[in-house]
Amino acid sequence: MPNDSLNMERGVVTRSTGSWYQVYLDKGWSVSCRLRGQYRLKGVRTTNPVSVGDHVTLRFEENQETAVIVEIEPRKNYIIRKATNLSREAHIIASNIDQAMIVATIDQPRTSTGFIDRFLATAEAYHIPVVIVFNKIDLYQPAHWELVHYYREVYVTAGYKVELTSVYEMTGIEKILDHLKDKVTLISGHSGVGKSAIINALDPELDLKTGEISNVHNKGKHTTTFAEMFRLSCGAWIVDTPGIKEFGLHDIDDETLAQRFPEMRAVMSDCRFANCTHLQEPGCAVKLAVENGQIADFRYQNYVNMLSAE
Questions:
Q1: Which pTM value belongs to this model?
Q2: CA-CA distance, 233 to 40, in Å (whole number)?
Q3: Which residue, 72, 96, 113, sits at the end of a domain?
Q4: Which pLDDT tens digit goes with each residue over 182-209?
Q5: Phi, psi for 166 (deg, rounded to 5)
Q6: Which residue, among 24, 294, 211, has the nearest Cα to 9 in the 3D structure?
Q7: Cα 79 vs. chain centroid, distance in angstroms?
Q8: Is residue 130 part of a domain?
Q9: Domain span at residue 197?
């Protein structure tokens, strides 16, 4: 392993644990790195200056097997959310991804459509395609099936890819693998929805830790404590993230929020007023589309809730 302090290498950040980062080098092996000084990217105020997926240049420290990150290359995109404790700052979950996959469950634990739609709106803002996965279908009761079929129809009509999976029955796993091939994919969702179990089903050699559902609150117990990028045996890269309880929108203003809903974007040009907020204005094409069933009522209500939360 080279340790010449003048030796510069390029790589991608595969794990961030705070002050240290794991970087997978273009040469095909990994090294532990720290960040040089107080590095802050221009124009983005975040709690983490380096995120999983960042392409970086590093320099090996003299007589050490560790390195220092000296440059972070410009990001082509990222998934970002409002920081949990610092309302004015944001947390970048991952960068330079080809697509995102949000794993949801109808029950055990329940994933709200509000959470799904906030994630989708953020991905739309950065032009990141999303695959929606409804997992644990082996546990569904008739009422759950009715609901998931309705959700699938709504999201597919809006332009999203939707898959139904069961790791227990190995249902839909091959379809997930097809989505992942030759791509870098962020996989996200609440704790307990089965993200790690799906990843293990895709590539058992990873053997990621999976958790149980709390009987008290019907919520997942955290098993992933930080975002980490893995390479599957098929060659795909995935970013496994900690279970997210809430997904706060960041840097999406009221004027552009409706554009992050594809079905609203398709009709909003027909509104009477160019600056229509789709709330109380007369001649609103979006509200008319909701009334005639072209836009699902829950999607519109989630839009309204996002406006009032900002």
A1: 0.85
A2: 35
A3: 72
A4: 999 999 988 899 988 999 899 888 776 5
A5: -145, 115
A6: 24
A7: 6
A8: yes
A9: 79-240
